[in-house]
Amino acid sequence: MGCTGSYPVEVRTHTALHVLKGAVVRVLGEAARWTASTYVKGGHGRLVVQFDRKPSPEELARIEELANKTVEWDLPVEVVTLPRREAEERYGDAIYDLFPVPEDVQELSIVLIRDPGGGIWNINACNKEHTASTGCIGRLSLGKPRFRRSKRLLELPFDIEPG
Ligand SMILES: [Zn+2]
């Protein structure tokens, strides 16, 4: 096992958002399941989720650890194109972020990372480019998070190691 392709750094950073989101929901629970926005520039990324408090240092360490476990496990990043209705019937609103996909979009590109037990690590309707497996991302380190109480938004900046 191991990553066999070579990818532009922003593709690795973008794919890391999916891995990190899975770790965030594992550690902070379903309350953190809505992504409000994402940002990628070079090897730097930021995931912003709706949440109601600042996570503890232990929780943040656990999120980082789990995200890096996912990279070590080198899980396949599956992409399937489905009619929107079918995707919604199969996966519910887990595929969506806080801001809705426009009504006129009838076909969704679903990005799915399964955990080693066959459960879902992360699923999201996303039409960007991804690495073939999580091992291609490289190690991820979390920066200092910011919690914006008035907006109930938790910002999680991160960097991936140079590839
Ligand atoms: Zn994506």
List the helices and strands and how they pair.
Blueprint: H1 9-28, E1 35-41, E2 44-50, H2 57-73, E3 77-83, H3 84-91, E4 107-114, E5 120-125, E6 140-142, E7 146-148, E8 153-160
Antiparallel strand pairs: 1-2, 2-8, 3-4, 4-5, 6-8, 7-8
Helix pairs in contact: 1-2
What would your notes on this structure say?
One of its GO terms (molecular function) is catalytic activity, acting on a tRNA. This is Alanyl-tRNA editing protein AlaX. With 163 residues, this protein is α+β, with helices and mostly antiparallel strands. It has one domain (9-160): Threonyl-trna Synthetase, Chain A, domain 2 (Threonyl-tRNA Synthetase, Chain A, domain 2). The chain has three helices and eight strands; from the N terminus they run H-E-E-H-E-H-E-E-E-E-E. The radius of gyration is 15 Å and the shape is globular.
Q: Might you state the CATH topology name?
A: Threonyl-tRNA Synthetase, Chain A, domain 2
The value of Rg in angstroms is 15 Å
Q: Give the structural class.
A: alpha+beta
* Spatial separation of the terminal alpha carbons: 17 Å
- Attached small molecules: zinc ion
CATH superfamily: Threonyl-trna Synthetase, Chain A, domain 2
Q: List how many beta strands DSSP finds.
A: 8
Helix percentage range: 25-40%
Helical stretch count? 3
Assembly status: single chain
CATH architecture: 2-Layer Sandwich
Cα shape: globular
Largest sheet: 5 strands, antiparallel
Unreliable parts: none
Question: How many domains in all?
Answer: 1
| Pattern of helices and strands | HEEHEHEEEEE
GO molecular function: catalytic activity, acting on a tRNA; nucleotide binding
GO biological process, one term: tRNA metabolic process
Protein name: Alanyl-tRNA editing protein AlaX
